[in-house]
Design a protein that fits this description.
This protein is mainly alpha-helical. It is built from five helices and two strands; from the N terminus they run αααββαα. It has a domain of 126 residues. A hairpin with a 6-residue loop joins strand 1 and strand 2. The chain is extended and about 75 Å long.
């Protein structure tokens, strides 16, 4: 049917705009797949436990109770590292689960978090998830990307409030500050 006959009162400039009568297909060309099943892999669990151990060891070391796994007598020192490792692991876990749950919402196949242990300094290099399919749009990419930091921030808030409430002001060391000022003026 000629477009001019249908829209006889339209201006000639607007008749060249295509008009769609039927529903458009999705831009990505296929329907969303069903939600993929949750797969608990032994590697995910093993890496989580190894990261929990290394962060606990790092926390114990920073608390002044070093732990050597080869010396069984030092294993009770691990308890001194739990106040460091449990909040850290919960924040990293919440961050990664934020990414993962939004992937599940958009039906993007992804893995559960893989934690990366590091037997020094903080005890971890963090964690990551693997998205096994291309992201279908900018909105999905943004939502998946921003969900992790938001979830991590929400998990951080109780520990932040507790830490600020329990903190005690420390006196300023004037000798150290004067030495620092002298070094700064000397430059």
């Amino acid at each position: 049917m000629d477009d001019r006959l249908v829209h006889s009162d339209a201006s000639p400039l607007l008749t060249e705009i295509p008009r769609f009568e039927q529903e458009l297909e999705p831009a990505y060309g296929y329907e969303r797949p069903a939600r993929p099943p949750i797969r608990w892999g032994w590697l995910n669990v093993a890496l989580f436990l190894a990261t929990l151990l290394t962060t606990t060891m790092a926390g114990a070391y920073s608390a002044g109770a070093p732990v050597l796994l080869s010396v069984p007598a030092s294993l009770p020192n691990l308890m001194a590292g739990l106040p460091f490792s449990i909040p850290l692991m919960l924040i990293v876990f919440a961050h990664e689960m934020g990414h993962y749950l939004v992937c599940r919402h958009y039906r993007l196949p992804s893995t559960l978090p893989y934690f990366l242990p590091l037997p020094a300094v903080l005890g971890t290099l963090g964690a990551f998830i693997r998205i096994r399919a291309p992201v279908r749009g900018k909105r999905e990419l943004f939502d998946v990307g921003v969900a992790g930091p938001f979830a991590g921030f929400v998990a951080l808030l109780p520990f932040l409030v507790y830490g600020v409430a329990r903190s005690q002001p420390a006196p300023l060391r004037l000798a150290a500050s004067k030495k620092w000022l002298k070094q700064l003026k000397a430059r």
